[in-house]
């Protein structure tokens, strides 16, 4: 069972946030939390908070399963571009330079890797019956 958490309109450029997101993509949740806690980049604190939110969303969906037994990992993490605030800065000789203040949207999906897959067992037995 997977859980999703979204972070919208973060005032950081998507390029800077993707560097931090690439560190934790595919990692176990405990390892990702420890990586984010000691990462000095500015997006790490926001992603740590987002990961904690995704964990609590997963706990709300799966009240009967213990967090320690679930073996959670980060299934997908995507960083998309958000709105761009455009500003003008005075430049020499009466000109103006455009400043683009970028933002981003982050979507984080965590999943449990300890789920039994019943459908693959059923497919194997049906193939054996055909032979």
UniProtKB/TrEMBL annotation:
Q: Which InterPro entries match?
A: Ribosomal_uL22, Ribosomal_uL22_bac/chlpt-type, Ribosomal_uL22_bac/org-type, Ribosomal_uL22_sf
- What is the role of the protein in this entry? This protein binds specifically to 23S rRNA; its binding is stimulated by other ribosomal proteins, e.g., L4, L17, and L20. It is important during the early stages of 50S assembly. It makes multiple contacts with different domains of the 23S rRNA in the assembled 50S subunit and ribosome. The globular domain of the protein is located near the polypeptide exit tunnel on the outside of the subunit, while an extended beta-hairpin is found that lines the wall of the exit tunnel in the center of the 70S ribosome.
Protein keywords:
Ribonucleoprotein, Ribosomal protein, RNA-binding, rRNA-binding
| Known partners and oligomeric status | Part of the 50S ribosomal subunit.
Q: Which residues form a coiled coil?
A: none
**Where in the sequence does UniProt note compositional bias of the Low complexity kind?**
111-123
Q: Please give the NCBIfam families that the UniProt record associates with this protein.
A: rplV_bact
What gene codes for this chain? rplV
Top-level taxon in the UniProt lineage: Bacteria
Q: Where is this region: Disordered?
A: 91-131
Give the family per the record.
Belongs to the universal ribosomal protein uL22 family.
User: Which source organism?
Assistant: Splendidivirga corallicola
* The protein's name: Large ribosomal subunit protein uL22
Compositionally biased tracts (Basic residues): 91-104
Q: Which HAMAP family match?
A: Ribosomal_uL22_B
GO cellular component terms, alphabetically, are: ribosome
Is Lipoprotein set as a keyword in this record? no
């Amino acid at each position: 069972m997977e859980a999703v958490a979204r972070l919208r309109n973060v005032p950081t450029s998507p390029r800077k946030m993707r560097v931090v997101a690439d560190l934790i993509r595919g990692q176990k949740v405990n390892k990702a939390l420890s990586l984010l806690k000691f990462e000095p980049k500015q997006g790490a604190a926001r992603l740590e908070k987002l990961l904690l939110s995704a964990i609590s969303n997963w706990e709300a969906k799966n009240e009967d399963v213990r967090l320690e037994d679930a073996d959670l990992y980060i299934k997908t993490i995507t960083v998309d571009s958000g709105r761009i605030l455009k500003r003008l800065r005075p430049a020499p000789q009466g000109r103006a330079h455009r400043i683009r203040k970028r933002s981003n949207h982050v979507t984080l999906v965590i999943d449990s890797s300890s789920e039994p897959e019943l459908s693959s067992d059923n497919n194997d037995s049906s193939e054996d019956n055909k032979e």
